Amino acid sequence: MIVGVPARPATRFDLSPxxxxxxxxxxxxYRARQVWAGIHAGREPEEMTELPAALRSRVATELPAxxxxxxxxTSDGGDTDKWLWRLSDGTAVETVLMRYPGRAxxxxxxxxxxxxxxxxxxxGQAGFTRHLTTGEIVEQVVRARRSALPRRLSNVVFMGMxxxxxxxxxxxxxxxxxxHDLGLSARHLTVxxxxxxxxxxxxxxxxxxxxxxxxxxxxxxxxxxxxxxVNRRYPLAELLxxxxxxxxxxxxxxxxxxxxxxxxxxxxxDAAELAEVAIPLAAHVNLIPLNPTPGYLVRGPSAATxxxxxxxxxxxxxxxxxxRNRGTDIDAACGQLAARAAADGDQPVTISAPSRR
Length: 357
Ligand code: SAH
Ligand code: SF4
Description:
Helix content: 25-40%
Bound molecules: S-adenosyl-L-homocysteine, iron/sulfur cluster
């Protein structure tokens, strides 16, 4: 058993079609198919009026949902929704849906909390609680897809709470389920990692060519050791070699995430170092002005500094964009809504490691 995952009853999205059929036992096969289709459309059992009432109530009790809505917030004039879910064991995780003209992207969590301890990250500050199951990850996408209607949910980014490659098995199974069961092409799925080299190597060996985003934040080991402690285990040379092999194997574009932190990694020398590593890999750079978090006192730089940093990268030949901070007013940065709910005195967010505040 994976450490941190206590035995729990499987939720409705943890089961394969034959397992759903087995739970329904004596029901005819077409009923099992109707149930599968209904739950994958994000419908609640009581809405599945094509089923007899007795079967609807069996679905509700024997195929329970894994996510229970605790809090919903909307910002950007209704374009960004953030949901804080309670899992069946009381753990809190969040999902963010971003609407664009004609389509939508969902940002899903892969763990409750995170053990990687990045100092500027709200999730890292709260510590690790547990891995999410495949079903808990898939359910975030199914619910977002329904909520996005009439827009098409086109993209899924694994950039919510947690480190996807530290929960590799369930995350990869979720990727395969999204691809096969929900029809989301692998090229519209993006896995974001803090830089776990063995996980990148496992991704390289898998068949589906998902997009890889690496949260770099520093392009020298001294600064990266400080911002992203896991760099001490997998230093830049190893990380960049693994990124290069991924790009060679998959032909997918690599992106580097760079949270711009005032006076820390926003200097001209930082841009020069970043350009030096991005260019050989033809990596796209996403600049994210730091969202303030309670446990990290440094802020994001001014808009002028952000522009200057981007322009330096562009002048050096790097494809760089500034990522618009969606949902800042609803704490839609990684882990922030869960942190806020805990601070507001809601049901405490279960945390297993001391807060770094
Ligand atoms: N653990 C994975 C994915 C989740 S974090 C990873 O680290 O890549 C998703 C992204 O949000 C990462 O790029 C992370 O560095 C960034 N991030 C975390 N805290 C942030 C903050 N306070 N401001 C801006 N970006 C942040
Ligand atoms: Fe974990 Fe990513 Fe936050 Fe680092 S930035 S603590 S890896 S969620």
